[in-house]
Design goal:
181 residues; alpha+beta; five-stranded antiparallel beta sheet; 18% strand
């Protein structure tokens, strides 16, 4: 991939969101084992999942910092679109299992302790997540690809389930801007 070169050339938010969408699609394609047509996964699918995951994290972090910075100074709007579900208190390691069992972030919005997660909060969670505990959920439906993150804010553990598809859509809804690297 040549995304690093594009980033250094200060790509726009929309270009980065488009690339993130493509990286996520590659991850989902490999997750479903398109090379092996089933389980166990073909070694090339495993390698593709790892590579696309690394690329996706880099793009997510770059976008999170760029968009949040602009929003901090009211240069960029703060859309109200929900992109995930957040548990602000008493997050447990089993929260990710529950999201997977229930079928994605949207099913968590009616569960006690969870609140809707909007773009700005999601970008904050991406920037402050514990990378050692990150997980994902890929549902059978085309519209399910969630990033599952844990972190801590002032001693309080939190858990966030963020839809990659909704996050990309929310970033695309913003006026495009040059990435400042």
């Amino acid at each position: 991939m040549v995304w690093n070169r594009r980033m250094w050339k200060r790509a726009t938010w929309h270009e980065c969101a488009d690339e993130l969408d493509q990286v996520c699609e590659r991850f989902r394609h490999a997750y479903w084992g398109k090379r092996s047509k089933g389980w166990p996964r073909h070694p090339d699918d495993v390698a593709e999942m790892k590579e696309s995951s690394i690329e996706g994290v880099k793009l997510l972090r770059a976008l999170a910092l760029a968009v949040r910075s602009e929003q901090d100074f009211d240069v960029a709007p703060n859309p109200r679109a929900v992109v995930g579900a957040l548990k602000n208190e008493n997050a447990l390691p089993t929260d990710a299992i529950e999201v997977k069992h229930r079928g994605g972030y949207e099913s968590m919005l009616g569960v006690s302790g969870y609140v809707p997660l909007k773009l700005r909060q999601a970008l904050n969670k991406i920037a402050h997540a514990d990378p050692q505990t990150a997980d994902y959920y890929i549902g059978r439906l085309v519209g399910n690809h969630d990033l599952l993150l844990y972190g801590e804010d002032r001693g309080q553990k939190w858990f966030a389930a963020i839809s990659m598809l909704d996050l990309v859509k929310a970033i695309r809804s913003l006026p495009d801007a040059t990435m400042v690297t």
